[in-house]
Amino acid sequence: MPLLGPLQTVAAGLIGSLAIAVLPIDVGSSSTPARPQVVPVAMKYEAVSDPETIRISSPVAMTALADRPVHVVKQGDSLWTIARRRLGDPLQWMKIWKLNAGHPQADGQAFTNPDLIRPGWRLRLPLLRRGSGDFPREKRATPSPVESPQPKPMPSSGALSAEGARVGIELPSGSLVAMSVAAGVAAAYALSRFQRRRRRVSPSIEETAPSMPEDPPSPVVETMRKAYFQSFRERGEEPPSDAELIRESASAMEVPRSVMLGSGERGATVEVALEGLSLGVTGPGADDAVRAFVLDLLQQAGNFRTELIMSRQDALVLTGIGAEELGDVPGLTVTASGDEAVDRLEEVRFTRRRLLAERESDTVDALRERDPGDVLPTVVLVASATVDVGSRVGAALASGSGCGIGALMLGDWPHGTTCHVGDDHRVGSAQGPLAPRLARAELFHVMRTDLAAALRLLAGAQGEESQPVEEDAAPPSWDHPTPVRVRVLGKPAVWVKGQEHPLRIRGLKLWLLVYLALHPQGATKETICEALWPGKPLGHEFHSLLRHLRHALEQSTGPCGEPFIQLGDDESYRADPKVIGFDLWDFQAAVKQARTAGDRASRIACLTRAAGLCGGEIGVGISEDWVLDERYPLIVAQVDALTQLAELVEGDDAERALDLLDQARRLDPDTEDTWCRVIRLQVRLGRADQARQTGRLLRAHLQSLQVEPMPETQELLASLAHSSVRTG
């Protein structure tokens, strides 16, 4: 020890004696119930500042260790596998690490990284028996600064037992989470990193700067990531790449039916169904247990699989994050008050009850199975169990059977099951239907700071949605009953009645709407997939896309109980004309009515409606064959409608007729007949100079294509030239 001088030998002896006193002994006779299967994560050890840290370099301390069993490391060994083979319990790997940390090996290296051991190293083993339960606290051993560097924080050393049982991960803060949660956090981090990297722009040569490493994730996120990846290594498998994690997360479609709350006395997992969940949690460990539940559900919220409802106050207590920031967390609905949170639960119950009646189904599970693209997440309320809120929630759950809703209440819950959670996060007592399952269970638990870090990651993984710039963002005239209006003639856009700007719907979601506009009678999943993902073998991409589109429409219009895109009995999907309208459909309907109109005035009225919908090429910005094949026929239809209307109104309103013909000319500049109509009308109106200018524009257009005018066009242009000579 520094500064002791001649007393150094005495101090070494005292420290060695202390080591003998605090090193683990055989605790096989302990009566403490066995803890659930947990993968602990080693914390960062401080060599000097931690008063519980001892050095093991003294001769006395080494003598105390000499009598323990020794394992000689072989190729392929890890602390996990050694603990499993030699101690009968792979979860005791940390005991081996603590017992040998910093110890010099025969090859001259010191054991400073529990994730790295080398063949030939000799590791002393603790005196443990399988099933020994809780252990007395041990002093942590680290090398002196002179002998070896300070140990690094260690990732989790395995996620599954030898039998393949699920286990938890113990975080440095004391949180205990399921391995499935770690998997979700790892996927969220991969997506978050991808979102950052895709937005990176390389600097110019003048701006060249030294490359900087990426900002590391928060400690809790990094711990869970490493634990998840380590579970693959211990099974002899390669951990998944970021791309694989993102693809797997994006393809997850199945709505979770249950959630794992923790582990029972004998290590069996404790799961409860989310459908009809009616559970109250009390006691000093209640908030931590509820936080673990919240994190588990929200990490599964992708593709609208789950929705969690909380009031602003309850959310602040549990997460320590404001409602504005929480609004970016997928699957989380934060309301202004507890009453509004219950309103949302009742709204879901009412809407789904109506859906079940209209579609003649007993449960939302049946609806999900029939149409996997339907937005029917499991909806769970998390709320304080006040008297007013409790009575309403109890009634909603009682009448919501089969609706896919549940509630987890903070407080006594006479309407279902109540369990009391102690400081050790074990259920001390429980009353109600779930009591036998929860008795003496140790529940997963998450500290507030850990939950906040994980939720911020989930929020940031979604990327930025910027409002697309629309040159003509004015909403269309709304003379139809549907709440949603889609423009496909021209640049596609989606409006909701009463809103001034189009919705932020783009990409494949917008493409799907254009495709359905071209197929009003519907199309099968296979034909739609071939159009949107030509030649690509697909899994759940279509249903995921459909969920996101339906959700965006429902969020903008409010819950109307309609899926917007229906699945028919013939297994084809079609846009529901009762709730979504297309300019193309209205145009085609107006043209059809004009053909059958019995008088001139009715025909003018129908063609006027059609003319107001002539927006140009369908699906501007889409270059797929299924759009390109439809473009010219629809341009021709628009030109014909404008030309026919111009003929009908020319006698009464020549200026209007000229405007209509000019609009038709701009839509299809290759049709010489439209140019000729414009020139003739300009001449009739006494605008010879304008007519000659129009003729020059026509010649320039044809010359750019290296073609000659048709004979009748040539004759008209020649007559303009002769009249110009006579006038001159």
Automatic annotation (TrEMBL):
Ranges of compositional bias, category Basic and acidic residues: 132-141
Gene3D superfamilies: LysM domain, Tetratricopeptide repeat domain, Winged helix-like DNA-binding domain superfamily/Winged helix DNA-binding domain
LysM domain boundaries: 69-125
Pfam families, alphabetized: BTAD, LysM
Region ranges (Disordered): 132-161, 199-220
InterPro entries: AfsR-DnrI-RedD_regulator (IPR051677), BTAD (IPR005158), LysM (IPR018392), LysM_dom_sf (IPR036779), TPR-like_helical_dom_sf (IPR011990), WH-like_DNA-bd_sf (IPR036388)
Origin superkingdom: Bacteria
Entry-linked PANTHER family: TRANSCRIPTIONAL REGULATOR REDD-RELATED
Protein known as: BTAD domain-containing putative transcriptional regulator
